Amino acid sequence: MKVQGQLQVFQLPVLQDNYIYIIRDINTEKTAVVDPALAEPVNSFLKERNWTLDFIFSTHHHWDHTDGNLQLKEKWNCQILGFAKDAHRIPGIDQHLQEGEEFTFGDLPCRVLFFPGHTLGHIAYWFFEEKKLFIGDTLFAMGCGRLFEGSPQQMFTSLNHIKSFPPDTEVFCAHEYTEKNGHFALSVDSKNQMLKDRMKKVQTSREKNQATVPFFLSEELKTNPFLRASTLEEFTNLRKKRDIF
Ligand code: ZN
Ligand code: FE
To answer: What's the predicted TM-score (pTM) here?
Structure first.
C-alpha cells in the first residue's frame, strides 16, 4: 500500500520574491533542489541537516532559477535535470528530459510536463502520486507567467492542460507574486466573492511576512482570472492588461 506524503518539501525564500524548493523522498533520503536561484542558502540548509544533494531540477533557463546550478554541482557532484530542447541554456545540465517522460526520484514517480509560454522550453515536475506540481513561472497564485518567448496561444494551451489536473493538486510556484496578482484579479473580477475572501487572507499573511505559496489548484480554478478565461481572446486581453497593471 502506498503511504501518502512521502515527499517532503521545504521552501526557501530568496532574492526579492523567489522561492527555492528543497525536496526529499523520505524512504530513500534522496534530496533535490528545484530552481536554485542561489547556491548559498541551499548549502546552509543542507549543512544544518547534514544532508547531501543528489539532483537539481530546472524548470526553465532564467537566471533567477539557475544561477546556483554550477556552484551546487561543483560542491555536491549532483545531477542536473532540464528540458532536452533547452539543454544549450540550462547551466550544467546532465539529464535531458523529454516532454511526457517519467522518471523516479527515490521511490517517487515524476512526470515531465511541457508548458511553453513564459519561455519556449519551460517544463514542470509533476509528482502525480503525491499530487505535487513544481510549476516554475507558468502558474502563480491568481496569476500566470509573463510571455517572454511564447505566444498567448501556447500559454493558454499550457494553462488549459493544468486545469485538467486533480483540484487537490498542490502547486509550488517560484515567486511570491500573490498580492499584486490579487489586486489585478479584483480589478477584472470585482464581484467574485471567493476572490475577495482569498485576497483578505493573502493580505493578512503578507502583513505577517508569511508565504502564500504553495496553494491548491481548486482555489485557482475559482479565483485566477487566467484560468477562468474561456477563450484565447479573453486570455490574451487579460495578459496584455496585466503587463501594464
Ligand atoms: Zn522565469
Ligand atoms: Fe522567475
So the answer is: 0.97
